[in-house]
Design brief:
InterPro entries: LysM. Keywords: Signal. The chain is α+β, with helices and mostly antiparallel strands and 104 residues long. The chain folds into 2 domains: 39 residues; 46 residues, Roll (Membrane-bound Lytic Murein Transglycosylase D, Chain A), CATH 3.10.350.10. Helix content is 44%, strand content 13%. The chain contains 4 helices and 4 strands. A hairpin with a 2-residue loop joins strand 1 and strand 2. The radius of gyration is 22 Å and the shape is elongated.
């Protein structure tokens, strides 16, 4: 391979590495959220360990039934009159959750 070809290949590999590192950094930054009470790491395991927030954003693959089970709110459809069809939920849809009352 000619010297110019090797330089071009090296440049392409360097750009690919930089893009990969930038994507990894974005993933890390996107998984950390700073709140008043400190840094909160978001993720499926940690989200399942805490109760659902009152305002809930539907994620990919979720149904009202799965959200109801996850959040402990059997009255999601009644609390959200903007959801006309329980089968027509989509990622990004914002719904209200009535947090379960603790038995304390």
């Amino acid at each position: 391979m000619a010297p110019e070809g090797r330089r071009r290949k090296a440049a392409v590999e360097a750009v690919a590495w930089c893009c990969g590192l930038a994507a990894a950094a974005l993933l890390l930054v996107g998984s950390v959220e700073v709140e008043e009470r400190g840094v909160v790491v978001r993720g499926p395991r940690l989200a399942a360990a805490r109760p659902c927030e009152e305002i809930y954003v539907v994620e990919e693959g979720e149904t009202l039934h799965s959200i109801s089970d996850k959040c402990g709110d059997p009255y999601i459809l009644e609390q959200n009159p903007h959801v006309h069809d329980p089968d027509d939920v989509f990622p990004g849809l914002v719904i209200k959750i009535t947090p379960p009352r603790s038995a304390a």
